[in-house]
Write a structure and sequence with these properties.
The protein is mainly alpha-helical. It has 9 helices and 5 strands; from the N terminus they run H-E-E-H-H-E-E-E-H-H-H-H-H-H. It has one domain (about 15-250). The relative contact order is 0.13. This is M48 family metalloprotease.
Amino acid sequence: MRRGSWKIRIFIGLAIVAFAFIQRCNNKEENPYTGRVQNINMTPDQEIAIGLQSAPEMAQQHGGLYPDERMQAFVDAVGKRLVQSSIARETPYQYEFHLLADDRTINAFALPGGQCFITYALFSQLNEAQLAGVLGHEIAHVIGRHSAERIAESSFWQTLTMGASVGADIGNVVGSIGQNTLLKNGRGDELESDELGVLFMIQSGYDPNEMIRVMEILKAAAGPNRVPEFQSTHPDPENRIEKIKEAIEKYSGR
């Protein structure tokens, strides 16, 4: 009886693992804006819905929106200029730009579907071109469908871990592999967004070299005890600067 039960568990576990891999293969699609093949399990409309639903909570976590409407209008204008001058205008996403009241946390981020955020702490240190670099980077995250890709990857590893847990007690190992994979891909996302951000700046008439200054600001904000690259989801600022210089050389003259 115990042997039979063990065999059934192995069979179920293998079936779940096989299902995870089959589903992952079926979810492969080429991003029409970047040309990169990705594992995506949702539509652009679903990405937009997730972003709109999550936006109020994200704003609340950063003290709400900054109360100065003039500054918000400035952020909107820069963001709109980037969208209208780049491939972003061809996408189905609904781009909205939010200036957050948080005056301590230097950060910017994007939700699936086009909701982009920047904290006042970062905004207050930037000139217009540097703001364009930050917003262009966040627009690139949306176009690159990075959040959707991470959601699909997370779903894959959760299913795989469940299958491994049913078949044998190695779920923690599989979960660890999944986490490491997510960290590695996260660095790739940042570099892709940096490159696209440079392109968007050039297309919008901004000096792309100002993106280097943004990296210097982020480096200074992180301080001397910043997390080493191999332990972080983001590439080291120095490595990002080198890649940005390569992107500027690549796209200059276009």
